[in-house]
Amino acid sequence: MLASIDFSAPAHEVARLLIGVTLLIDGVGGRIVETEAYDQTDPASHTYAGQTARNVSMFGPPGHAYVYRSYGLHWCFNTVCREAGHGAGVLLRAIEPTHGIETMRARRGLQELKLLCAGPGRLAQALGIDSRLNGQSLSEPPFELLAREAGEIEVLTGPRIGISKAVDVPWRFGLRGSRFLSRGFAAEPGTQQR
DNA sequence: ATGTCGATTTGCT
DNA sequence: GCAAATCGACATT
């Protein structure tokens, strides 16, 4: 069943809606368990200072991909939010591997399931994400978004990771109880730290 | 279990 | 020139 996400909503709402949704690229991927929201009013966002060659797709239509290179070597994957021109998006930080696990293991050169997609760079490597996908629509191949199963899920929130500005904005979201998070949430003792 | 360091693109917010 | 929405290797406790 296809997921119907309203990507024109504010980034922090979309970030919450995406938890539990299954993302596949060429049939490979899994259930989204961790996201972070960024928007143009946010000093930690790539779009804070306006449009540049790197971030153009974040100013494009919602429901498309923004892919950028992090620290010069990792790819990171975002979904663009709000109406075109707002420069808002959601960073996918962790996925629970469910589809094409052997493909992901091969791409990552790694056996351990827990670390296959636990982190934005790892997730991008496992799903084969690179700049070719930048600006592409998420409602067309190779992308597939499947609605989460019926029933309640609990979403945790906390401060975002790896930034030095707006560190107190609680725009990191995670699926409670998942062992596939990139890190635990402070509010939830008992969840792993790594 | 925790620390530090290197790889290397992008924009200077 | 330098910091960055990161990760893995290697060192030390």
From TrEMBL:
A Pfam family this chain is assigned to: Pur_DNA_glyco
Record-stated family:
Belongs to the DNA glycosylase MPG family.
User: Which UniProt keywords are present, listed alphabetically?
Assistant: DNA damage, DNA repair, Glycosidase, Hydrolase, Plasmid
Instruction: Specify the superkingdom.
Output: Bacteria
Q: What is its EC number?
A: 3.2.2.-
Q: What class of enzyme is it?
A: hydrolase
Keyword DNA repair present in the record's keywords: the answer is: yes
Give one GO term, molecular function aspect.
Answer: hydrolase activity, acting on glycosyl bonds
Q: Which organism is it from?
A: Comamonas endophytica
* Name listed for the protein in its UniProt record: Putative 3-methyladenine DNA glycosylase
Keyword Hydrolase listed: yes
Query: Entry's InterPro entries?
Result: Formyl_transferase-like_C_sf, MPG, MPG_sf
